[in-house]
Amino acid sequence: MHASLVRMREVVASVREDSDDAEHPDAWLTHGLSGWTLTFSSTGVMTLENADRDDLPSRFMRGVSPIRALELWQLLAGGNVKAVLAQPWERLR
Q1: Rounded CA gap, 18 and 41, in Å?
Q2: pLDDT in tens, 28-84
Q3: Rounded distance, CA 53 to CA 10, Å?
Q4: How far, in Å, CA of 26 to CA of 14, rounded?
Q5: Dihedral of CA 69/39/15/74: which sign?
Q6: Which long-range contacts (CB under 8 A, 24 or more apart) does 57-63 make?
Q7: Is 27 in contact with 15 (CB distance < 8 Å)?
Q8: What is the crossing angle of helices 5-14 and 66-77, to 10°?
Q9: Which residues contact 17 (CB under 8 A, 6 or more apart)?
Q10: What is d(CA 62, CA 41) in angstroms, rounded to the nearest whole number?
Q11: How many Å apart are CA 51 and CA 57, to the nearest integer?
Q12: Neighbour order of strands in the sheet with 26-30
């Protein structure tokens, strides 16, 4: 079962540059079946990684708004991995 939309909204909203939580400036969502994880940073960077697959490169996107982060999380939570992978990602070097 995936996270509810209400809970995802709460978590994304908690990721702010002015947050007092210096230990947890990021939030992430993992799709258990595929192993893909989307991490949203307080700096507006979204990363896409698959810890289960060393052959798949990590990717990132800059300038991601909380609304866009929520959209991407919804896609991943719904199992629409192809749509997530089709986004304009840059590869980590």
Answers
A1: 12
A2: 999 999 999 999 999 999 999 998 898 889 999 999 999 999 999 999 999 999 999
A3: 29
A4: 9
A5: positive
A6: 57/91, 57/92, 58/91, 58/92, 59/89, 59/90, 59/91, 59/92, 60/89, 60/90, 60/92, 61/87, 61/88, 61/89, 61/90, 62/90
A7: yes
A8: 140
A9: 42, 43
A10: 10
A11: 10
A12: 26-30, 36-41, 46-50, 59-61, 90-91
46-52, Cβ contacts within 8 angstroms, sequence gap of 24 or more: 46/72, 47/92, 48/84, 48/85, 48/89
- Token pair, residue 73, equals 């999380």
What was the pLDDT predicted at 1?
Answer: 39
Take residue 9 and report the two structure tokens written for it: 């909204």
Place of tokens 């893909």: 36
